[in-house]
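Internal QA ticket QA-208
Title: Verify multi-chain structure generation after dependency bump
Assignee: T.L.

Test input:
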Amino acid sequence: IKAAVMDSMNDEQESVIEPTEKSGGRSAFDVLQEERKALPIYQYREELLQAVNDHQVLVIVGETGSGKTTQIPQYLHEAGFTKVGKIGCTQPRRVAAMSVAARVSQEMGVKVGHEVGYAIRFEDCTSKKTVLKYMTDGMLLRELLGEPALASYSVLMVDEAHERTLSTDILFGLVKDIARFRPDLKLLISSATLDAEKFSDYFDFAPIFKIPGRRYPVDIHFTKAPEADYLDAAVVTALQIHLTQPPGDGDILIFLTGQEEIETVEEILKHRLQGFGAKIAELIICPIYANLRTELQAKIFKPTPQGARKCVLATNIAETSLTIDGIKYVIDPGFCKMKSYNPRTGMESLLVAPISKASADQRAGRSGRTGPGKCFRLYTAHIYYNDLEDNTVPEIKRSNLSNVVLTLKSLGIHNLLNFDFMDPPSTEALLKALELLYALGALNKHGELTKVGRRMAEFPLDPMLSKMIVASEKYKCSEEIISIAAMLSVGNSIFYRPNNKKVLADNARMYFHVGNSGDHIALLNVYNSWKETDYSTQWCHENFIQVRSMRRARDIRDQLKRLLERVEIALTSNLNDLEAIKKAITSGFFPNSAVMQKNGLYRTVKLPQTVYIHPSSGLLQAPPSWVIYHELVLTSKEYMRQVTELKPEWLVEIAPHYFQLKDVAYPDSKKAAV
Ligand code: ADP
Ligand code: MG
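Actual output:
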């Protein structure tokens, strides 16, 4: 088997790994092989393979960086498991799936997308040759819709199980069941924390395989008093380390909550460093977050040049998903972005929240991988011991479940209350999801999937977006609706606003708001205008639009177009009938409608909740009485993002089972608006 593997590697090797001369005449490929052998897991290779042979389900626990994600699939491949089927490995984060696939393909001397590939939403970088497939847990859930028994897999590794993401938790229940009727399928559940008993118990007392890690002592420092501004405190701490410690001594890792904070800290750091001029050693700033361009993601793994120091600014992704070698100092402000869900209102929001003790310990541990480390916690010891929760609450307990419920229904799982959840979600949240799917027409009164629901489930989108697409058939505007859906799926990175050109950028943005027609139509205008320029980069620059986001929107749109074909919805354009387009949007988003009250504030139609138009909306200057919005974001207030005008009579026309005439009466007046 090994010889065969080596042969196939040699075909590709030259095109990928340049046989550059490294120290002692070894090629880069040889160096990688030596690095592989130096990982803690290498010593347990044979034992691990034996355990996989002996048991169908195995729980694997090992310190972050010990080599679980990159090595185990390779070991199994080398041992011949890929002769009968693929090896799949799920990751909660898409950056991790991409980055690990890149690393493993280098180690195997092949191109990404050939023998080693990855699949994330809207991006499938695999081929017929692919035998090691890294993917997000959400992607595997979708794959199950087409391949319910995972027939093309010989091994499935549910990695980073300790993260307990919503998709991973749902996968647990599904793969446990699949393993029962597919005794030939090997199931590996791998986790970074020692909380493995719980996984073992859940999987019918599967044996636990422990990979002892190397861990050096970490010196932990707390602040004496709480920090008023943790970003500033993080910058000051990083600079102090850099200025007082010799540069060759080790790199710095700062945990931040998201792209915005990372960009802010990067800016402040660069500015302060300029003040020092050339007097000090170079500090190389490396950001890493989910939307970072792929080329830049690779930068964090580049070895630090002599005489310089690296300062990695990372989100939670560096907590366990990615290991960056050479970190000696960790700066932990103690926060992360956390999803929270209120089943009463059905609102999901992303909030900056304190991390758990388990997270804080993981973060600290990142500094002690290659030698003794130091962790600077920007909070007090009192907060750590008294205020932080022991563990993060699993995502399933703080999420909107409509998407997973639709997936489970499509998989033929009807009785959700009986589903084998490791930690069951609240009944209230389950009912809320069923209620929404019923309102959208995806389920009938008996909770069974309808034809609409079946079509909706084909789209890898939230049910409200899928419904909007399915409804576009009726309003003959599928061309426009998939453009809008693609633009919405890209997120909030379409327009940019440079600090010194804010007015120009805002004017450019308003140019797409023809006749106060709303943010959805503006997004459509942007897409169509770009298309008319033949996808010009120059045009994007002139209009303060991110070309990268536009290209992504185009890719997503192409895929949605193919999915339309699958569900047999014709591509039709109805660009001159904006009302039809808005009605299609309303068909999916009617639960997100709001009306202006006498006091000038909006309240949501179904619930008495005050909401505001987001400052980035084109409707801010002339706010209409009735609006529909894409999402709510909670920052200083509950903001509606991507807002479009609505005629209240549409609500009763489109969703008569959801709205009654009294709902569409203007508040504070007895008269219905119809
Ligand atoms: P685990 O899954 O046990 O946390 P990994 O298999 O992810 O460990 O990591 C093993 C080693 O591979 C680490 O030293 C890490 O730095 C290295 N590694 C992982 N991904 C990359 C990458 N994209 N580029 C360079 N090195 C990487
Ligand atoms: Mg890993």
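Spot checks passed. The pocket of magnesium ion (ligand 2) is lined by residues 68-69, 159 (CB under 6 Å).
Status: verified.
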